[in-house]
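Sample intake sheet
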Amino acid sequence: MAQCVQSVQEFIQDSFVPMVAVLCSEDADKVTRKNNLNFAELLRPFCRLTSEGHIRDPNNQVQVVKNLRICVNNVVTSPNTASAALSPTQCHLLNEVVLSCQPQESAVTSVITAGDYDLSFSATTPWFETYRENFLQSMPASDHEFLNHYLACLLVVSSTETVPVEQFLKLSQEQHRIQHSGEYTNPKWFIPNTLKYYVLLHDMSEGDEKRADTMYEDMKQRYGSQGCYLLKINTRTFSAEDDDQIPDPWSQYLHKNNLHNQDMLDEVAPAVNSAAVENNICAPEVDCHYSAEKDGASNTLKSHPLQLDTPSSSGSLHTLSAVSTDLKKGAKDPESLAGGAGSHGACLTLNDHDHIRQFIQEFTFRGLLPHIEKNIRQLNDQLVSRKGLSRSLFTATKKWFGGGKVPEKGISEPRSTCGPLYPPEAPELQIRKMADLCFLVQHYELAYSCYHTAKKDFLSDQAMLYAAGALEMAAVSAFLQAGAPRPYPAHYMDTAIQTYRDVCKNMVLAERCALLSAEILKSQGKYSEAATLLIKMTSEDSDLRSALLLEQAAHCFINMRNPMVRKFAFHMILAGHRFSKAGQRRHALRCYCQAMQVYKERGWSLAEDHINFTIGRQSFTLRQPENAATAFRQILTNDSRQTATQQGAFLREYLYVYKSVIGGNEVSLPLLPLPCIHSSATRIYFGHERRLAEGEKQAATHVSLDQEYDQDMAAMWCHLEEQLVAAANRGTIPVNFQPTQCCLNSHTDNLHHPLAVMEEPIIVEVTFRNPLKVSLALSNLSLLWKFTANVVSPSKEKTTELVITNEENLALEMKQKDDVVTTEVILEFHMGPEEIKMARLRLLPHRTGQLNIVGVVYNLAAASSGEMAPSTEGQQTLDLMVVRGRQDLKIQGPRLNQTKEDKMLVRYGPDQRLDPIITPPMPLMEVFFLQFPTALLCGEIRKAYVEFCNVSSVALCDLRVVSTHPEFFTFGSQATTPDTPLSPTSAENISAYTTLVTHPQPGSAAFEMLVSAEDFSQPSGVMEIPINCRTLQPGESTQLPLWLRGPDLEGVHEINFLFYYESTDKGNKISHRVLRHTVFICASRSLSVQATACRSSVPPHHSLDDKGSGGTLVFIDVENINTSEAGVREFHIVQVSSSSQHWRLQKCINPATDKDCKLISRERAKLCFRATRCKPHQGTSDAVDKYTFADLNLGNERIISSSTPCGDFFFRGCRTSESQQVDVASSKTASSIKSQSCAPTEDRASDITNIVKKCNELDLNIIIIWKAYVVEDNKQLILEGQLHVALETIGKEASSVTPKEEAQEMMLLKFKSELPPPVTLPSAELSQLIKTNLHYPETYTHLFVQDSLCMVPVTLTLSNCSLAQVDVIIDLRHKSTSPESLEVHSSFTWVGQTQYKLQLKPQEVLCLTLRACFLQAGVYNLNTPRVFATPAEKGGMCGTSQQTASPALIIINNA
């Protein structure tokens, strides 16, 4: 139970006090009425004695009476018998007492921490204490007990009476008639000989004081000095000068007194049922019609066990409407209850107060207590002398009970409900009467003995009502005994409650018993037993009592040593429900709010919904629409598990409440909870949405809200933009560079304010989520913004900030002012159940400044499930359910994790994506592509066109482009495009190449042209787009040709372009703008080219070239690897060109004819060309960076390979491959550095490798130009293309198709534990230091008959291919042992010197004359000399055997 102001002893003593009746004459009543009080009310504030009293018990022991209070009431007669329930009026007034006692805002609150619960609730419940006090004082008198029977009667007569004694006699006779005539059952009197105390009331302002004193002396002679009293009051007289404030102690007592004096009203409305009054009473501060209308709004809801009851009819509400209104007035203005205007006690001074207090003390000590003491003695004597009683009261024998003990804890079913009725003079009642007298004067030990004895008598007679009363008071007496000689018999109370409730059907007495027992148990810390007792007392007959007891039970649970938090909350909910049924809406709301602390955010979603719904309805009924709206918002925002029907009802209730909240406040928009907004998912796009393709035009893809964000792609675009910015700023990136972000989301960098452009739209994509299972209808959806404009005043040069917002216009749904920002409105936006939907809202700024996007504004309504009837009434109903509100967009920035403080604390950085800065106009470019393919063959050349349009009002310049695949496209190079006429054939076929008509002759030399690489490529890879004057004016557009080349690898390729341009007006916050474009090209296989180079075996002096420069053959294998799916019938190789700084193709050896090679599917052709070094005059210092292009056309057209687009793609392809090689070389260098640390002997090997590489370097690039004939839609198309092969080393094959690296990756994934193999010298490459050649006659005729030895001269030519001195060893003693060589020739021998040691200078050619000796005719292979070579500076190393030429066969004929 909650904390109380009184202790349990004070509470019980004040619950049972001596009762004193008052009978006043008319004149006496007039005297007291001057103070707006009757006599009983006049005495009430002074009825508690301040000093101790004494009595003597039957054993003549003095008993001290402390803190005694008496109760004085006017005599109100009633012929009705006592009922087992309170009258309807009493119930109603108890309801009013509780209603008028509400918790104060400054009341003490308790904070309890139980586990992870922190609860704050009211520590005291003054409404319960007030109810309990009034309930106990308003209990009807009963025949089975005497505690609330009158012990004495005050007879009050005014001193103004002519003969006061006669008036006293009349009053005395009246009292006697009321008590003994039998006409009245109420009031009840304690004993037949009631104490009559005569009071002479003297009005000091009117009467004669001496006469009053004379009358009083006469009274003392007649009634004795202890039986009468002269009370002088009304000393004070009113005057204009008298303004002294006298305290008013009567106000707090008058409302309680009103309860006791309302019995006369029972006849006014006897038909009103008590339960009906309680269950249907309406709170007086609430308009009945208003409440009924509100309750009627939720009739569609399904009945819930704890749902609020709605009044069945307005008639039950109006039954007590007038009474409720008056009582409400009386609760706030207690003077009205006294029946008059003005303050109480206006004619009384403080001395009068003391007179009244002294009168009460005199009456009690000299009249009442001696009367009680005398009656106790008389009753004790009667009981002791009673027939059959041989011993004193305290040692009664067991024969009273037939020798057996009646069980006390369990009562068997009685013979009748009421049991026997004792006459007033019955000995059992005399014992009870004595016990009550002892109890009233605090003689609890004697009272307990009497109660205990009476209890046994009643139980033996099966008088259950009497027995229950004796058990109840015995338990209380045992508890109140000083020193606690015996423990509190709680089972007495349990038995009494059970008897009252179940046997006697008297809930009033059962409730009193429960209130006493619960308070006692609470004082002993037995909260669990107290809670159980209180819960048992709840029933359906009284909602108010059940609500108060359930609330106290909840306090018991929370005040335990281990607080039971959930039981506290559950019983608070039950108490709130019963409070609601009893019409106590404020108390119901308080209970639900306290219970909500336990259920909130604990996963009890259905319980939360019920509590919030109830709080919402109660708050709305109590005219607290803001609190109601808050509660309903909680229902709608939580992840509810309610059914769709229930959620729909919740939504309608919420809209109805919100409509009333914003009814009188149309300017400020309220916050709406639905739909939920995922603020962090908000995306902002700056700029116009791109136009789609127009006919054959394909617009640049750029950025749109339909694209998903990719972190890797964003980094790629940022890298491309950095290249462009560096190229525009002489190779450096500015310090304040920020990459362009057209679309901002939660993954982008939002630490800085984004820059938007004036007159360009800002599109905000807001993500809405409907958490309900019912549809939502949003309308008039728009953005809420605040704009800060920088205004320069003309008089002062200072800049002032002008803040503009559109909230007021949106709240009133007025026409928008478009001079600052144009706001787009979405008229209808429908959301299905549990749907996530995006809304794209636009703003168009017209001025520069700071824009802050605050939130969204919209109308919210519950979407109708069916078709609305086209009636005006239905339309009005629909309008009522539409509310206009807002939701703010608040985006939390990223978690900071840089400093130590950031890591230790939870800090978040700013997110500025909703706060753009509006900048002055900027140029805006759109790019369109014409005839742009989606599929190409590998290496295919296609010509397209690109169109640049300036759609803004500002000129743009410095147009650049960069791509992830620079080898894919080119805009051409004007410097290298010759002004030659196009051939008719190329014009007819619309060839992308520049061609010349030629008539090649067999064996003719190639056409050559010298070109500088700087004319084709730019070092940074950024291309400047060649537009006229480098500027594009507003509204101007231009078209440029664009050549494309299919990627060398088959598959789908993603190719990204980034266009860059600047404004001609410099100095803006936005320095440049970019435009993105992404294309996907599907590349199909075309041709596969493999090329090798080898040294020719032709002797140098037979070669047409200069010394040491000839003898290199280039073999090219071309295979058609195209599949038939592409529709390609055949490929024609129309030209082979070369490009190199040092080498060139000289002539074509195979095919020797002038027809081009034709390849159908899977066919292969082998081409052979002779390559020579460039002429010496072309190798001067001026032409170091120049490339020699040599064209060998196989048809009747020569394609100029050094011009656009052939030369462009060659150089772009070379630069791409070189960059890849640099990456590979750098990784190899790193690995070689690691290996050198382990093996220092590799330094020598690397030197030799460099020598060998220089020896075998070729640096010849082959360009294969082809045409393909394709049949498509019954039309023959001619496709063109070129493939590149880079020959870098003699003897090493090169391919146009890049080998797949899966195998290499698989090798990298293997982890081997073996040691790396030892480094070996590149013998395959060292074997090519010396080129050997044998010159001899093919046939030789010798007459073996004359000379058996045939001597043939053979010349051995040695050519040093390296740039270093080489030591050569020639060994002629080598004999071939291979079976192949034995089959070809028989044995011969070299004669003369068989071993030579020579040293050849760099690129030196040396001829040795040898002689071969043959013994017989035949075919012989002369290629048997072994040549060993090693660089001269590595002389200590053994020589490496050099590669020999093909077999040198000689035929020896016999003459």
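Comment: The first helix runs from residue 8 to 15. The mean pLDDT is 79.
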